[in-house]
Design goal:
single chain, 334 residues, alpha/beta, Trna Endonuclease, Chain: A, domain 1, 434 Repressor (Amino-terminal Domain), six-stranded mixed beta sheet, 41% helix
């Protein structure tokens, strides 16, 4: 009986996630975003890449956000930094409760929202005001505005503290902007000064360099992948291996980026990866490349992704030569 119940729950979660994915794609398109192909190859730290003007979103969708792992978060953060994107986790519940609308959650340093919160943000321009943290719901107050309104009411720090029910030190921290405020406390403060003070949560923040670990990690690749990536390093690329993406690595040279997939043979999975990385490269204005580690590929283009043999890279001496081959075979520049 227990086994039967587990199967039913698993199927339900998978169906819920599929519905969430389709609704998210629809929401993004209605909000004016260009949306990539679904990244439905495993393992993957993200499911969709979307762009509107200069805003790039890199999204992971899970019905239960507690199933999001630390390793997925680390790679999502690295990839977002490299592609100048904002990482977001979209889901509807944790193992214990459903996510509330207007509240920003966090899993392993990645902001998590439910779909309605995302809709309010993208369609209505209304970002979340509340952050869920250990110990309760918190908000960030506009400290300068708080001080101005307090002084206009001729309230001392001590008087405001007594009316709100917190310490004088807490009011000083709120005015300096050095401490977030419990939601209930913030509501009492706004009631006393009769003014809105809550600042929106910046859920579209891009990772900073200090937030990510950018080591190349080529040593973790398979031997087939490592030989190709070492050739890219030799000719002048900075190479960042990806373990949970449809591409093997992100290569960087001369402010250009190259999404590179390495394979030793053609298959339906490789064709799907080629289609996905071409879609992502188009959205992020990067180059895409499929490298065959053995032999000579029959085509120079697969699902609109340029194809080269490893031996061709071995004859190259600088990144620009490879970019020229990619441009020639794709017929366009990013």
């Amino acid at each position: 009986m227990c086994g039967e119940i587990s199967v039913v729950v698993w199927v339900s979660d998978r169906a819920n996630r599929e519905a969430l994915l389709l609704e998210t794609i629809d929401l993004l398109e209605r909000s004016g975003f260009i949306v990539s192909e679904r990244c439905d190859v495993k393992p993957s730290s993200f499911d969709l890449v979307a762009r509107k003007d200069f805003l790039i979103l890199i999204l992971k969708l899970l019905w239960n956000i507690d199933s999001f792992t630390e390793s997925q978060a680390k790679e999502l953060r690295r990839l977002s930094y490299l592609l100048l994107g904002s990482p977001l986790l979209i889901g509807e519940r944790t193992k214990n409760f459903f996510l509330e609308t207007g509240v920003a959650y966090e899993r392993h340093g990645i902001t998590a929202l439910n779909l309605l919160s995302l809709k309010n943000l993208l369609l209505e321009g209304v970002p979340p005001l509340i952050q869920a943290k250990r110990g309760g719901y918190y908000v960030s107050l506009d400290g300068k505005s708080l001080r101005r309104h307090r002084e206009e009411l001729c309230l001392s720090i001590g008087q405001l503290a007594r009316e709100v029910g917190v310490s004088r030190a807490a009011i000083c921290q709120y005015e300096r902007g050095t401490s977030d405020t419990l939601y209930e406390t913030a509501m009492r403060i706004e009631k006393v000064v009769n003014a809105p003070l809550t600042k929106p949560v910046n859920v579209l923040r891009r990772p900073e360099k200090e937030d990510v670990r950018l080591e190349a990690k080529i040593h973790t690749c398979s031997e087939t992948e490592r030989k190709v990536l070492e050739e890219l390093v030799r000719i002048g690329f900075s190479v960042f291996h990806m373990e949970k993406a449809p591409f093997t690595a992100v290569g960087m040279a001369f402010n250009n980026k190259l999404l590179t997939t390495v394979t030793d043979k053609l298959s339906s999975v490789v064709e799907k990866k080629a289609r996905i990385i071409r879609s992502i490269s188009s959205i992020t204005e990067t180059y895409s490349l499929l490298v065959f580690s053995r032999g000579k590929p029959e085509k120079h283009l697969l699902e609109k992704t340029p194809v080269v043999a490893r031996k061709e890279i071995e004859e190259i001496n600088e990144p620009q030569e490879l970019f020229e081959i990619v441009e020639e075979r794709s017929g366009e520049t990013p």
